[in-house]
Amino acid sequence: MLTKKTTVISLLAIICLGVVALCICLFPTQNKQNNVYADEGDVYTWSYIPGDVNQDGKVTSQDVDALKELISNGSLDLFSMHPSNKTSGMLAGDVNTDDRLNSIDVAILSDYLAGKIKLIPITEAEWLGLIIPSEYKTKFGDVNRDGRIDKNDLTKLKAAVNNEITLDDYAHNNADVNKDRAIDNKDVEILDYFLQGKVTQLPCRYVKFESWWFVHHEEIGYDTFHTEKWTVNFSLGNPINSVADGLGQIGNALGDVGNGIKKGCEDIYNGIRDFFGGFFK
Questions:
Q1: For residue range 239-258, what is the model confidence (pLDDT) as tens digits?
Q2: pLDDT exceeds 90 at position 220
Q3: Which of 59, 211, 232, 251 has minimal Cβ neighbours within 10 Å of its Cβ?
Q4: Please, are residues 177 and 187 in contact by the beta-carbon 8 Å criterion?
Q5: What stretches of the chain adopt beta strand conformation (E)?
Q6: How many CB atoms lie within 10 A of CB 234?
Q7: 35-137 matches 138-217 in fold
Q8: Which of 54, 84, 87, 90 is nearest to 71 (CA)?
Q9: Which residues neighbour 195 within 8 Å (Cβ) at sequence distance 6 or greater?
Q10: pTM of the prediction?
């Protein structure tokens, strides 16, 4: 037979559990989903000499040939590639550090071997103030590459988005004004806003909330000792899964803090008993 003390402690425990359950159900839980890139905590590391595509320890014309071979079927997008499929040679060939291997990298590497460029990757040369040919510098918004950003660029960008024309690698980089690695209507919208003065700088990654814009300019860092760490993405689950996950979390929490709850309830009971002078005796 349950005593009054046991009954009160049990009721307090049930109330505490109810509060925990309510909180978990009110705040959506996050369900783990596999990332398209790698498993949580996986770390991939590469070490290489910039330009040494064939990984023979030196940069020669053979690396240009190796780079051409890598992109023989078109541009290679390193950004979206699974880290386990990347090689040091691929990263070494990205001599403008834009996470793409294309004709621009071939031209830069060729100019470097010809002595026209004094340092690769060209981002490091730019930091040191060395001369870099203007065609290798991305000028976001200058789609027609005439040195200006105007309505003509917007017209050419719309034509590219509608598949009326094909942009070369240089124009493609300039046209990707939100740096999402795709040329689409988002770029058209941003460039249009830039020409209207609603966006003040390019590139622009934007978040639109009704009538205001948050403009963020992202600088790209570079290190020849390249490390990538990919983590699992999380997304909100549907209500049923959220409740199920919440109940599961309650069960785990009870296993971890059961003794603490019990002690806390006993302390509450003792405090109430002392306050009312033995009312529950």
A1: 454 455 455 555 555 555 56
A2: no
A3: 211
A4: yes
A5: 30-33, 43-47, 76-77, 100-101, 205-209, 212-216, 225-229, 233-236
A6: 12
A7: yes
A8: 90
A9: 149, 150, 151, 154
A10: 0.60
Q: So what's the pLDDT on residue 229? A: 60
Q: What are the contacts of 271-276 at 24+ separation with CB within 8 A?
A: 272/8
Class of 138-217 per CATH? mainly alpha
Which residues on adjacent β-strands are paired with residue 206?
215
CA 272 to chain CA centroid, Å, is 53
* Of the ranges 21-30, 77-86, 143-152, the best mean pLDDT one: 143-152
Fold of 35-137: Type 1 dockerin domain (1.10.1330)
Give CA–CA dist 15/252, Å, rounded. Answer: 18
CA dist., res. 188 & res. 207, Å (int): 15
Q: Any idea where the domains of the chain sit in the sequence?
A: 4-33+235-275, 35-137, 138-217
Q: Which residue has the tokens 């307090």?
A: 12
Among the listed residues 111, 83, 116, the one whose alpha carbon sits nearest the alpha carbon of residue 99:
83
pLDDT, tens digit (0-9, with 9 covering 90-100), for 143-170: 999 999 999 999 999 999 999 999 999 9
